[in-house]
Design goal:
The chain is an alpha/beta fold. It is built from 32 helices and 25 strands. β9 and β10 (303-307) form a beta hairpin. The relative contact order is 0.06.
Length: 776
């Protein structure tokens, strides 16, 4: 493979083009962002410059850290297109009109370097039309790279090569986008909508029309096609609101132009008056006045309303459903789909059409069923792809029910017979091929997944909340198992046992899991239950046990590497803080958020953050600046919005690693652990000089000011006082030294005092019920 891609030019600074440029900058790649030249003094690069300004204000942020903006240079097509000869890759993200794209390509063809790769982000125009009339070299270096929006957060990248595209060109782009951009790359054929949008938009329109035809309400649809089915909580109508209701007819129009009239997508589409009226009145979804859901503020309160599909009227959202079969969803798809009420029948018709459509599209849109499943999981965040869903029902059961319902059976569904589309043999996951045999799922070099390790081995330690796996080279991996990977006493017990086992039989430990979140912190449900029983001795034991195990982890005689991804909050953040090193996924959101539920960090979070802050200020010595930074961070429950931000917030060290690809995180963490083994010595305990009463007075004055200004409540101030007492060193003076153990004792005392307060109980209960903090 040729040299790495180091410089990329993005042409088109709209939402998508600017987002792609931003994510390239996240990978610290030099980016030239071009758009049409504008007239006026100093305005020639206005479009690209304005796009950068929008990126800075966007929420969620397309940029992981503001310093990444330095990697983006703006320009215009007229003056700067000749610069592409020095760029490794040019990505076109302009209007979806073939003639305008071809005009741009003609210019690029004249000035590109001999090895410059060119790609389009199109999802509607066939590749062979884009390259028509271009030079042989251009065609050999051209492909389609279809990013999903927003590019930073959506993992799917569909890549399509033409008949002339050189394999090395394809390989370079795939490897770069995987390693550097963290994309899950899926190979697609040059067909309309490729994979994810071809199936996903068909599913959305089918679910919508079936609901309209059979009287199923919007909330009922989103309950059916929601988390119980392995689909995000947005469901169907929430997702349409998110992407834009006005996009549905545009997609259908585009598909209808290129798909045959016999295709199910074209045959099934219609444009109901309800949708026309909503679009005309500005109800286009979240970007408009609302969509299928809206927030009505007319009464002075925020009332969530939902549209009635039969008459277009908005009514308050009801959480009570009239179909008893919905309760069967918890038992699995088959019990639910075997029910006879309208909701189950609706779900069956929608699934039958969607899944048979997906099955029938192989090999038209891609060569393997695995590609389809992966595209739907990465692009639409389904937990199970279409073929995995059929396997969960049983292909034979599904086929029989299709026959009973009068649906046509796709050839591949007949071919699978009494088997399944996937099976496990000799510790490998295999999928059914078009030839009727099974092929192993292959992973790129540098990808290590617990998902695969679990197929060929058993955990070396396990209980109900955690387990430990041998991942080779005398490295053990500790995995959380609890709901949302919340931390409880069982998890602590197994972590303690794991430390002993590594010390005896292994050389290093990695803390990692493949859940949606690394850990949301302590199990609040158990904590609230304990508080309601007034079993405070039990709660105190949990706090003390957590401190004991985390200290043992920090000072273990072997290297410990934490590998967080997504949320690492509260106690989950604290376990990361006690590791020797961190190898974090780029999308890691760390924070000590205990004040939100009326508590303070008590598993060493305050202690570890103070050590880091003091170390940043000229060694082990206290200062108001050091402690003040930690007080603000913990006192406002600040959460880093990326791993790069976590480094700024001292939760990660500058030398800690960041991995862009979620699939490569465990491998990278293991390599980091292996690199620390030779000559490893555990960290020594330290003593700190903390500012004492002077700091407490200053902190409390700040908090009183916030209360007076209405930015904090009286109970916020009470919690902050406890935090200030810990961070200032308790009843010590700036000339005194305070040990780590003494700081831990301050944490325990403050935590338990707050844990006994009914206002803390109210905060805990509120966040468990609503998912939102209570400002009491």
């Amino acid at each position: 493979m040729e040299q790495a891609i180091k410089k990329v030019c993005v042409i088109g600074s709209g939402v998508m083009g600017a987002g792609i440029a931003a994510h390239l900058a996240n990978a610290q790649i030099d980016v030239l962002l071009l758009d049409v030249k504008q007239s006026g003094l100093g305005q020639k690069n206005h479009l690209a410059q304005a796009a950068l300004e929008r990126l800075e204000k966007a929420d969620p942020a397309p940029i992981m850290h503001k310093r990444n903006f330095k990697f983006i240079t703006v320009g215009n097509i007229e003056d700067d297109l000749n610069k592409v000869k020095d760029y490794d890759w040019v990505i076109e993200v302009i209007v979806e009109k073939v003639d305008i794209k071809q005009q741009l390509y003609a210019k690029i063809d004249q000035c590109r370097g001999a090895k410059t790769i060119v790609s389009s982000n199109t999802s509607t125009i066939p590749l062979h039309l884009l390259t028509e009339g271009r030079s042989t070299s251009f065609q050999q270096h051209f492909l389609i790279t279809h990013f999903f929006n927003p590019p930073r957060y959506m993992r799917l990248l569909e890549v399509i090569k033409g008949q002339q595209t050189q394999q090395d060109v394809y390989d370079r782009i795939v490897d770069f986008c995987d390693r550097m951009l963290g994309k899950g790359v899926v190979d697609c054929h040059d067909t309309p909508g490729f994979i994810a949008n071809r199936i996903g938009s068909f599913w959305l329109q089918t679910a919508m029309f079936e609901a309209m035809d059979h009287g199923i309400t919007v909330p009922e649809v989103d309950q059916i096609f929601g988390r119980a089915m392995g689909i995000p909580k947005t469901g169907v109508f929430g997702l349409i609101d998110l992407v834009g209701i006005d996009l549905m007819p545009l997609i259908a129009e585009s598909m209808s132009k290129v798909l045959p009239a016999t295709d199910a997508y074209v045959k099934n589409f219609r444009y109901p008056d309800l949708i026309k009226n909503m679009i005309a009145e500005g109800y286009t979804g979240r970007k408009g006045k609302g969509g299928f859901y809206r927030i009505n503020k007319e009464s002075g309160q925020k009332v969530k309303e939902v549209v009635n599909l039969s008459n277009g009227r908005y009514d308050p959202v009801s959480k009570s459903f009239k179909y008893p079969s919905l309760d069967l969803l918890k038992q699995g798809l088959v019990p639910f789909l075997n029910a006879t009420d309208a909701a189950a029948q609706y779900a069956w018709r929608t699934l039958a059409q969607t899944l048979t459509y997906a099955v029938a599209l192989v090999p038209e849109i891609t060569d393997t069923i695995y590609n389809i499943d992966r595209a739907m999981k990465l692009g639409y965040n389904w937990k199970y792809g279409p073929f995995e869903l059929i396997d969960r029902m049983g292909p034979a059961w599904f086929r029989e029910k299709l026959e009973q319902s009068g649906y046509e059976i796709p050839a591949l569904l007949k071919q699978v017979g009494q088997d399944k589309f996937y099976k496990i043999e000799q510790g490998q996951k295999l999928f059914l091929t078009l030839q009727g045999d099974y092929q192993a799922v292959s992973r790129p070099e540098g990808v290590l997944l617990l998902e695969d390790i679990k197929l060929r081995s058993k955990p070396v330690l396990k209980n109900g909340s955690a387990q430990a796996w041998d991942i080779g080279d005398q490295v053990l991996c500790f995995e959380f198992l609890s709901k949302q990977n919340a931390i409880d006493l069982e998890l602590m017990t197994l972590l303690d046992q794991t430390i002993d086992l590594v010390q005896k039989d292994y050389k290093a430990l990695v803390i990692y899991n493949e859940g949606s979140h690394f850990s949301v912190g302590v199990n609040l449900g158990i904590a609230l239950f304990t508080a309601n029983l007034a079993a405070f001795d039990m709660m105190a034991d949990l706090v003390a046990r957590g401190q004991e195990v985390y200290v043992k982890l920090k000072h273990a005689p072997f290297p410990v590497v934490a590998a967080p991804a997504n949320m690492a909050l509260g106690g989950g953040c604290e376990i990361v803080l006690h590791a020797d090193a961190i190898q974090a996924h780029s999308e890691t959101y760390m924070g000590l958020v205990e004040v939100g539920v009326g508590l303070v960090p008590a598993w060493g979070g305050c202690k570890e953050m103070m050590i880091r802050a003091v170390n940043e200020n000229k060694g082990i010595g206290g200062s108001m600046a050091s402690v003040g930074k930690v007080f603000e961070m913990i006192g406002t429950a600040k959460v880093a919005k990326s791993a790069a931000q976590a480094q700024d917030m001292l939760m990660m060290r500058k030398e800690d690693g960041i991995t862009m690809s979620r699939d490569r995180l465990l491998y990278d963490a293991k390599q980091k652990a292996l690199s620390l083994i030779d000559g490893y010595t555990p960290p020594e305990s330290v003593e700190l000089s903390l500012p004492g009463g002077m700091a407490r007075v200053a902190f409390n004055m700040v908090v009183r000011g916030l209360v007076k200004a209405g930015k904090a409540t009286a109970y916020d101030a009470e919690v902050a006082q406890k935090l200030a007492y810990i961070l200032s060193g308790g009843d010590t003076d700036v000339t005194d030294k305070i040990s780590e153990d003494e700081i831990l004792k301050l944490e325990r005392t403050a935590f338990m005092e707050l844990a006994r307060n009914p206002k803390t109980h109210a905060r805990m209960e509120h966040i468990l019920v609503t998912g939102k903090p209570l400002r009491n």
